[in-house]
Amino acid sequence: MANWELKSCCNHDQVAFMVTVGVFTVVILALWRTVLLTPFKLITVFLHEASHAIACKLTCGHVEGIQVHANEGGMTRTRGGVYWLILPAGYLGSSFWGMALILASTNLLTARIAAGCFLLALVVVLFYAQNWTLRGLSIGFIIFIAIIWLLQEKTTVRILRYVILFIGVMNSLFSVYDIYDDLISRRVHSSDAEKFAEICPCPCNGVGWGFIWGMISFLFLAGSMYLGLVILS
């Protein structure tokens, strides 16, 4: 039975989970503006664009192409679908995937499933990629995850869960930062939030929607920590 109230917290696994997330957070913030994190930032951009594409497909639209740029920008070209669902899917979807990866890291089986789904997504996106940055990123991470998985199964270097957790934490933090940087701290008229404000009948501008999306993304991050502790209790 799930320990939703987290009684008798915290056991060894729960402490290890919180400490690891804390260490990863400090490392990510310390290396934030270095090239070492660039591939992981671009993976977050990829998940952002992939979320647009998934929302488009789920609402019977057509994905014409996906791009991820070296300057940490991206674009998904769609036709049809439900536009007011496709627009917020990028930021909120990226936050959701961050939460999913964090939770998947709590167990080796779910970490394997997450790695397999991640590899499949990277292979599928190769057919939609419209620039070499995204193609190179996909191929690079396919090789990277495959090597980590091979080490997990064939050697004593068993770090698959930690790699999945790191990608999840990185994705969650970058999603919250990206919403603040793109939608709240400055007003970009071509942003997803501004476009959403134009079609939404609510009296809320792009900055307002950015704040709402940012709060939802933060709740995803906080929820992943809470649910992770419940799973490990």
Topology readout:
Layout: H1 12-30, H2 38-58, E1 62-68, E2 74-79, H3 83-104, H4 108-125, H5 132-154, H6 160-184, H7 192-199, H8 206-232
Antiparallel strand pairs: 1-2
Describe the structure.
The mean pLDDT is 90. This protein has a two-stranded antiparallel sheet with strand order 1-2. The protein starts with 11 loop residues before the first helix and ends with a helix. Helix content is 70%, strand content 6%. It has 8 helices and 2 strands. With 233 residues, the protein is mostly helical.
Task: Describe the structure concisely for a colleague.
With 233 residues, the chain is mainly alpha-helical.
**Large-scale geometry:** globular
Content-based structural category: mainly alpha
Radius of gyration over all CA atoms, rounded: 18 Å
* Helix-strand pattern: HHEEHHHHHH
Count of helix runs? 8
Number of strands: 2
Task: Spell out the key features of this protein.
single chain, 233 residues, mainly alpha, two-stranded antiparallel ribbon, 2 strands, 70% helix, globular
